[in-house]
Design brief:
It is a single chain. By secondary structure, the chain is mainly alpha-helical. It has 17 helices and no strands. It has helices at 16-24, 26-29, 47-88, 96-142, 146-175, 177-209, 211-238, 262-281, 291-314, 328-358, 366-389, 395-414, 426-449, 456-494, 498-509, 519-536, 538-561. The longest helix is centred in the first third of the chain and has 47 residues, at 96-142.
Length: 575
Amino acid sequence: MAATHHNARPEGTFLSAVADHAQIDETSSNNLNEQDPLLPLSSPRDEASTASENGLLWLMGPALLAGIFVKAFDIAFLATSYSRLASDLQHFKDASWVMLTASICSAIFVPVYSYFLAYHGIKRMMFIAYGSFAFGLTLCTISTSFWQLLGSRFVVGFGSSGITLLSMIVINEIVGVKQLAIWESFVTCIEMGTSMAAGPLGAWMYRSFGWHSAFLLEVLFAVTGVVVLHWSFKKIACHARYSQSTLLKHGDPSQLPSHADGGGWLLLILAVTTPLVAFTLGDNILRWTDPLEVALLILGPLFMVTFVVYELKIASFPVIDMTPIFTKKYLSVLFQVFGVISILNSIVFIIPPYIQVRAFGGPSFEDWALTCVFLGFPIGAISGGYLIKNNILPVQRIMLANAMALGACCSLFAMRLIKPEVAQHAPLLVVFGISTGLWQSCLLYATLSSTEKKWWPQTLALYYLIETFGADLGMALMSTITRSVAKIGIRSSLGDSKTTERIILDAMRDLKSVRRLNAGARTAVLVAFENGMHTAFFVPCSLAAMVIILAAAMNIKHLDKNPERSDNEAITPTN
């Protein structure tokens, strides 16, 4: 058996320098302040170096914003148009995979960037991420079939995972953990501002010129991002005061471990993909009672547990060091990350087809519904960042109040009181966006605050892994429940016959096929799909209940342990 790694230095897991920094600065780390960076600086942080690093942020800012912008545009375009795109490619029943493919790849490859960062440096890894993203979008532009598009989205996911992780590392390297909330709010504003425009613009380009035109525009944006990234690093290299910046470090590829953690990578891939494949195959290609389907449903959780145990106890050079996970506070926050992101993506995922079904053949609010959600998101993110930065309210209180607001929104969706196809309900969609935006600011700060400073790199990598997996699982569950309940409803209304099965098959491929049916059959199919989507709202409602319980438990525990603390004192990072 290989040596147990969790008692050794975290060399080769994210940044070897973090361990050195933690040992050299062990005394000062016990007096952590809001300016402590995620990556070690080359010299002590005094006023001059702080000003220098702020200048560095201005130089890196255009490159970071370019990557964030094109990624947000891509997500917003697909979120608005993925169901129509899959329908046009004769794969309406597999529409979720247009979104899931890139997201699954992103979850798998986040640890890849964190693993190789110490050996190749931020600069090289950022060029790999931006270049892969641009190449993947180019493949999307020339795709002619559903399966070619999915392969292209896999490459896009590889690039997008690096853009997300490396952007937050660079920002936190410069501003520190407590300032991270307000800067993340700024990033969120850029993302959501882009999303508000990208959804309607992409939908208009799709209708006017075809879906390839939207991807072509994204390619132009992505290539521009690569050029801006090159310009940013060239400018930084021209300034002598930045010569020792971590951003310019090339790493040392010769220090790569001779034996990669192949078992860990394999288990990670299986843990992420098996549950999603199982839900996709269920009642689609395989019956739920099929032995293979049952085996996949059982193996999914087993692979997750095995991955954690393997990385913790066996792997010499683990993909992600699992040491900081097993504390109650960290696990509580991690489950809330999973729950909130699953809720957000479940509802955002279901809104476009939901509107398509409810407003079939008539005018609707389809192009603008998600824009309303995206409008509320930066408002919530900025508010949360401001509250955290200025210690106006404890993070636990913000999270509990927001959990109840999020639960109320999910309940209103499930009870059909929020009708996203109606423009008059736009304010309710904005409120939902505000609630999820508040969570965006709270969760990352709460996650870093629940672990020791030396584990922040591993914590950040795991945060994005759980975030992406939660989003994928939420979308897969919504798709599976909708599909299964819709089939049951159609068979119940139209009877069991070959004609009914043909109607189901055609509707699952292309919802527009129901136009060929008589009025009674068309209504039965649309009602079945609508009921299936409402049944699927059980998923976000259940997750909201879990998040409320966890947030309440955090507040109770906080009050029991700190009865003398004032209400205005927020959580500070663990040292």
